[in-house]
Amino acid sequence: MKSLWFFEDVNLFTVLCPHKFKTYKKQHTFDAYKKKDYIYFEEDSANKVYLIEKGKVKIGYYNDDGTEVTKAILTKGELFGEKAILGVEKRDEFAQSLDNNTSICPIGVNTMHELMRDNQTFSFKIYKFIGFKFKKLERRLQLLLFKDSKTRLLEFLNELCTEYGYNCEETGNQIIKHPYTQKDIASLIGTSRPTLNILMNELKDAHIIDFNRKEIRILKKMRNVS
């Protein structure tokens, strides 16, 4: 399995966390969050970036009518709040813990800039990560605006295949062991849980996928599904 946020098979957490660097180790701590705790809100000062040591974090924002839009759900080893690196001073999104034992590594923007200034390869990886993440987000927002729920689900399953899928030699199927609940998936594709259940069962009945709570099996290439 390969996570989308790994570069050259290096987990960002193992590369960036300040406790890995002698200069910053003594002053570094981890922050703990429970389920539904907010790490930051929209309009908060953007003076830190964050790495997930363990747990799961939702990134989102609210429309003018108060509707919540989920931009991403992140897991262990992933980075968020990265716009602060680019000089953005206020948050335009919220970050919320989805687990009862979420552990976050906060990194001050000045510390991050020092690390980037002292290591050109490190700096390149950060900018590559930011560009890749923006590109992925743009693609997801296009799907939310212009595609129907079934198409959004199929695109998301293809994305999961790339991030978390591996081949089962016995059956030839793609097996996806992913960290998302059905509620997470519904939020990410912009639909309700009942609608997601209907769509998943339609794909199951058509022998395109099989699934349980912990994994999804791709039985047929989804790009051929009309």
UniProtKB/TrEMBL annotation:
Pfam families: cNMP_binding (PF00027), HTH_Crp_2 (PF13545). SMART domains: cNMP, HTH_CRP. Keywords: DNA-binding, Transcription, Transcription regulation. Residues 147-222 form the HTH crp-type domain. The keyword Nucleus does not apply. It comes from the Bacteria. Residues 12-91 form the Cyclic nucleotide-binding domain. Coiled coil: none annotated. PANTHER family: CRP FAMILY TRANSCRIPTIONAL REGULATORY PROTEIN (PTHR24567), HTH-TYPE TRANSCRIPTIONAL REGULATOR ARCR (PTHR24567:SF74). This is Crp/Fnr family transcriptional regulator.
